[in-house]
């Protein structure tokens, strides 16, 4: 089997031929019926539904306070070194959860581009005397699995600063305390000598990325549109955006040679050495009656030196901190990919989460989606979905469409939604609906362990209970006038960046619209 690079064009031609055949067979009465039905549909889509007949939940029904899990943070002496640890007592049904939170070390741009792949290897390679098959068997015997992920958040008040951590995690039943040794062995003795295994994992990663484009095209387009608007958005675009797929393909090709795979393994090993030397801390979540015993086991299992303690927070640049000049530019980038539809996005530079205008921007996205964008982009435009949202990590306000048959018309609808916001009289219930939706998201129930993890990681990035409660109060106080004010302040046409993920067949069209073309 071989892929057909022209399959999209062939399908479009077949569809056009089928429609032309149908049109030829239509009588005059059939044509008039279609026109009448179209007019009736447009009229129905423009009708305002009577929502008063539905049961209603109001702002008065929102709980006054935000439930936030409380843990205990202290230092644990390990080999004469005081190591930071946070513990939570939670109903876990006999499980316990351990995490090692490691400050992302200072890496070169090349090493940064490899971090997503590196972090995926923790549970996939051998460690110590065990090959990767033996390690996976050990994982299955004593745990629910070992994982490592990259966690990053923009500063509360500076788009040019962010923090990043690698989080190694493991969960197990309370009597499987050998999982502490499993995580320690996996992290400290990870092997980078299984070349064929790494080649296979690299090829799998490339295949998954390529297959995900039609499902995640809107997210990739938004990421492209806002890529210059914060330090974190610049980094994410390079290491996980569409440029990363191009780099991944090159990496797969180069790794097929003995010299290429040897060089890659050496690079991964160098990153791992930096990670092992980086500052770290522990998170442990368990039932109250088991917590003390588990902390003692952790203490006996691990060893540390003082270099692995968190750096002085007053230092200008410490491990785990990302700094870059946020330099928003009005760009127009089109990525051509093997897809049959478009994914459109527009982005405007906005503010960090602690800014006074952030709550109104958070609500504005849902207000535009419910009131205008859903109808214009999905019901009338034919896209599978569309909307707008404020992103606190990118410090941007972004519009998007999902699996969209249109292109220029969708960008016009993004702009038309702003005109609709300013020129129409809006009802308070529309605002209330959006606030209720955001509160439902903030208050969505989690497992006790999930609440503990959320509380810890929010605090890790400065999202303290006080900050989160203050944001909640500001959200409840937003008015329609606030929405109109922030839209006028931040969403001017001259500040807009555009991006689209489009089929190769649209190359001439997107170029004619002024887009710079990138090809996958």
Can you describe this structure?
With 520 residues, the protein is of the alpha+beta class. It has three domains: 7-41; 51-66 and 331-519, Cytochrome Bc1 Complex, Chain A, domain 1, CATH 3.30.830; 72-323, Cytochrome Bc1 Complex, Chain A, domain 1 (2-Layer Sandwich). 49% of the residues lie in helices and 18% in strands. The protein is built from 17 helices and 13 strands.
In N-to-C order, the SSE pattern is HHEEEHHEEHHHHHEHEEEHEEHHHHHEHE
Do you know the CATH topology of the largest domain? Cytochrome Bc1 Complex, Chain A, domain 1
Overall tally of domains: 3
Low-confidence stretches: 312-318
C-alpha geometry: globular
User: What is the CATH architecture annotation of the largest domain?
Assistant: 2-Layer Sandwich
Class from helix and strand fractions: alpha+beta
Query: How many H/I helices?
Result: 17
Overall pLDDT score: 91
